Amino acid sequence: MYTGTIQKVLESLESDQEQGLSLQEGERRLEKYGENRLEQAKQKGLLRQVFGQLKDPMILVLLAAAGLSFFVGGGRDWLDAAIILLIVVFNTVISVSQEDNARKALEALGKLAAPRATVIRGGLERQVESTQLVPGDILLLQAGDYVPADGRVLWQANLQADESAMTGESLPVHKQSGGGLAQDVPLAERRNMVIGGTMITGGRGKVVVTATGMKTEMGKIAGLLLHQSQGETPLQRRMGEVSKVLSLICLGVCAVMFGVGMLQHRDILDLFLTAVALAVAAIPEGLPAIVTIVLAVGVGRMAKRNAIIKRLPAVETLGCASVICSDKTGTLTKNQMTVLEVWTPAPGQSRQALMLGALCGDAKEGPGGYLGDPTEVAITQKAAWEGFEKAQLERDMPRRGEAPFDPVRKRMATCHDRPAGGVLIAVKGAPEGVLARCTQVMSLQGPRPITERDRQRITQANGELAGQALRVLAVAQREQNAPPKSMAAEALEQDLTFVGLIGMMDPPRAEVRDAVDRCAAAGVRPVMITGDHKDTAVAIARQLNLFRPGDKAIDGAGLDFLPQESLEEEIEQFSVYARVTPEHKTRIVRAWQKKGHVVAMTGDGVNDAPALKAADIGCAMGKTGTDVAKGAADMILTDDNFATVVAAVEQGRGIYANIRKAIHYLLSCNIGEILTIFLATVLPFPHAPLSPVQLLWLNLVTDSLPALALGMEPVEEDVMDKPPRGKKEPLFTKAFSRRLVWQGVLVGGITLLAYGLGLRQGCAVANTMAFATLTLSQLFHAFDARSEETALLHLGIFSNPAMNKAFLAGLLLQGAVLLIPPLQGAFSVVSMTGAQWGMVLGLALTPLVVCESEKALRRTRRKHPVCEERKTPAYR
């Protein structure tokens, strides 16, 4: 619709720009095209959402364990089964509530359209619901209106639209009527069209509606969101790994143990109960809830640092981000034009240049500052700082007439009465156009004839300012005793005196440079994606140290030429992507992901929404962000501060480390439990060292509070000194798995040793010593699990209050079972002597001492590597 003439567009739509559609035709087309609204994604029912959560492998294992615990145990182990089911229900409720965020993007898109519109139907202006618009309607627009549908401009008077939410263009776009454009003109440069969902910032216009609903440019974005699926987060993939590993180990051990027991002609019911108890103890059923709670704690911490998380797993995803694709306007920059440079041929004329710029503009003072075109607001604000308040200027020099800005001549002129008599004509516009109308130049002594050297100096200054990515406007004036006979542009814009150049920019945020450097230090690659011109984008990127030697920039035309396969191969060469469309942004995100990167995308506009959802984690701006961007994002930055992204990366890494600590603690303890029961079954012990009731009690005391307390650990100091984890990096790395095994063997070994030492005094004492040793050793082991590398003394023994409380709670509970007679009978334990207590405590402290010593040995080896290792330069 932007390529043909106005007449052809009207003919194709069977519409008349004076009469519009008839009322009957409007109703007929409404039935044909449907309402002007966006399609909504089909929502899952509650049962479908619940069953979707119950398909998770970890949940299935837990449900199986609960069933075995209850039915095979004859209902005697109902308490543990009930606890498992409660945990499953708790985790499912939280997960289902998070799924509701998926449809918010489309709902926000629907709300963004203007609720009512002014149209011409049957030759009369009418107010109609925007949902009732149809192709062919004649729509009237003025400053402050939302554009409810796509349309072709039929007539305009200085019509300007803020299209930054759709195209990324930070400046208002001046619309024009007239002939068609080339087929390959990008959306940001279709001056003869208005885009649904944008806002009119100035002037008036008449347009014919060319597309409604899902056929609009916004509808295309909604379609991308509608058909886009949400992939698993790295955390979800890793939890799947945990479920599979635990299931295989548990089933294998139980099967072997049961088979060996039958060969030894042991009681089948006892074997069943022990196998069930071991299955429950070996599977950390609290892990899903612990992970959820740890993530929730992280969400609270991040909210205090201006980052609101919408999906809990997104916290961990951000922690392993290796690429941040950031929108420029409003994210890396302030989204506020600011005057940075004023150049004048003669020194001391800057204030005069700013005064002329303020006079020759339509910015008005509002409740929160100046309102109007961002360029004019920037000049007016700067002039006010120099003592030229707009209201006072208008009182002293009231405007007599004007020649409005025109995109063809690229100038604006105003005529004002002077206090001393006569008039002052002020002109501002593109430097080359203003300079061409000048016959004089301002000097210290006043106007003098302009020379060729003057023109060269002005042209050179303009080039230097433009080279700094500044938007440059020239200002000129003419004073005369009598008002001009005509206010036409030809009469006002002649015989001008050149006064100066004003350079403006949407400047980078002050804190972004440090944030970019911190990202680089942490191994995270920040790149810029913008709808702005490539030269401007590169200049901003250089200021932020985001565009470094060897980096390349590419624009939308280049992306269109580049097939997706080639883009995926070359994606890491580019740091700046300019003049991009929503489809380009999604292609860029996908290309980085194809390279194995975890991609975070920041943005604030409607045009960012598909890429925000396609990225591994989308980060929307809270202040300047549209509802669409917020709905599509996983995280909202309430302060619109790029530095908050870095803080969120730090928290994400810390949260993942804490989840890893909890898994390390739980699995190393569970390996110890499995090893204890398994070896006791295959070795010639007279009785099992632990009863089913003791195993279940042990499971409740040690698998909950200490593991949860590990999730409350503060973020370690060096978390941002390491590169991000790879997307395919397994949770169970070789080093991590080795530590789990040898620490589990250590816990199981000291438990069997305690049992063996107690057998001298009888089976009851041996069972009590094994039970006490295993429980207390796990409580002590939680302290060394607080860090994989840092010494406990360096962390501070009491630096985690949650761990201190968890330890005391576990100690009191276990002490009650071991010391209070009624509980002793319920748990089949007996009182121990002082010597037996000494042996138990000594053995229970062994894992803490050994693990801390092993960490110290690793640190020593890193500080003093062997000779072969010294040959490798440290900076590699």
Structure description:
- There is one protein chain.
- The chain is of the alpha/beta class.
- It contains 36 helices and 25 strands.
- The strands form 4 sheets. Strands 8-25-24-23-9-20-22-21 form an 8-stranded mixed sheet, with helices on both faces. Strands 10, 13, 14, 15, 16, 17, 18 and 19 form an 8-stranded mixed sheet that branches.
- A hairpin with a 2-residue loop joins strand 16 (438-443) and strand 17.
- It is elongated, with a radius of gyration of 36 Å.
- The protein starts with 5 loop residues before the first helix and ends in a 6-residue tail after the last helix.
- The model is unreliable at 101-114 and 867-876 (pLDDT under 50).
Helix and strand composition category: alpha/beta
- Spatial extent as radius of gyration: 36 Å
Question: Strand fraction band?
Answer: 15-25%
Largest sheet: 8 strands, mixed
The spatial strand order of the largest sheet comes to: 8-25-24-23-9-20-22-21
Q: Label the overall shape.
A: elongated
Poorly predicted regions: 101-114, 867-876
Mean pLDDT: 83
Give the count of helical stretches. 36
Measured distance between first and last alpha carbons: 57 Å
- Count of strand segments: 25
The share of residues in helices is: 40-55%
